[in-house]
UniProtKB/TrEMBL annotation:
Keyword Ion transport found: yes
Protein name according to UniProt: Solute carrier organic anion transporter family member
Membrane topology according to the record: Multi-pass membrane protein
One GO term describing the cellular component: basolateral plasma membrane
Compartment list: Cell membrane; Membrane
Gene Ontology molecular function terms on file: bile acid transmembrane transporter activity; sodium-independent organic anion transmembrane transporter activity
Length: 277
């Protein structure tokens, strides 16, 4: 009982607030960035530009895993303790890497990357060939009166009407459900794969993050970019894009089944996998 101690640190609050602010700052890039491209780019070039946007979005986590691998090799109290007195190595289960260092580096880079946005023009002239679809995410249909009035009731009323109209679109609703299922499985796969590599293959945290960032995310980014090129080359419409997405998803599902045949036997642990005798 004398060795037990209740956790008294409230640092998790700072991490929670930091992630909330990060989410608020990066959320407009996805919906408004895509609608920005859709409004001011030629219709046949939009798939390539959107593919480039998503590809860059996948390169970020890749570099994040590589940065995490580097930080995991450094001791958590780097700069505050004499590293020569540390007797354990990153392969030791008691090792704690400098996880906090990635937040500082990522925050500085994000701040520097946000500066060019301040110099973008407030408005652009639409080219004649631009897509003038009035159901764009950035059109007044989807984002009503939020910038036109400070009254809450008109905004909520128009927002409910717009949300109902969007969700009643069968194509959009089906796509949203498919995306929910795909990202649900992808995030779970990406989250637990490093731990699986550590437990089953005896790899350190640093090496697991390095391998994940180098092998898992670049193919996804490459696939997004190639998908955009194929859509532009063959000028796919909604039906063609749907058939293309279904075919690729089915092939990916077949290949994913191969994961069931990859792995090692469980470790022999007395009391868990074998008896004490």
């Amino acid at each position: 009982a004398g060795c037990e101690k209740e956790p008294s640190s409230y640092m998790w609050i700072y991490i929670l607030m930091g992630n909330m602010l990060r989410g608020i700052g990066e959320t407009p890039i996805a919906p408004l960035g895509i609608s920005y491209l859709d409004d001011f780019a030629k219709e046949e070039n939009v798939p390539v530009y959107v593919a480039c946007l998503h590809t860059i979005g996948m390169l970020g986590p890749m570099f994040g895993f590589l940065l995490g691998s580097l930080c995991a090799r450094l001791y958590v109290d780097i700069g505050f303790v004499d590293l020569g007195s540390i007797t354990i190595t990153p392969q030791d289960s008691r090792w704690v890497g400098a996880w906090w260092l990635g937040f500082l580096i990522g925050g500085v880079i994000s701040f520097l990357a946000a500066i060019p946005f301040c110099f973008l023009p407030k408005s652009l002239k639409k080219p004649k060939e631009a897509n003038n679809d009035q159901t764009s995410y950035y059109s007044p249909v989807i984002m009503p009166c939020i910038f036109q009035s400070q009254l809450i009731y008109p905004f909520l009323s128009d927002f409910y009407t717009s949300l109902k109209k969007v969700l009643s679109n069968r194509m959009y609703f089906t796509f949203m459900c498919c995306s929910l299922l795909q990202f649900n499985s992808f995030i779970g796969f990406l989250t637990y794969k490093p731990k699986y590599m550590e437990q089953q293959y005896g790899q350190s945290t640093a090496k697991s993050n390095f391998l994940i960032g180098l092998t898992s995310l670049p193919p996804v980014g490459l696939g997004m970019f190639l998908g955009g090129l194929l859509m532009k080359k063959y000028k796919m419409g909604i039906i063609g894009a749907t058939k293309f997405a279904f075919s690729m998803s089915f092939v990916a599902y077949v290949f994913t089944l191969l994961h069931f045949f990859v792995g090692c036997e469980n470790h022999v642990v007395a009391g868990m996998t074998v008896s004490y005798q």
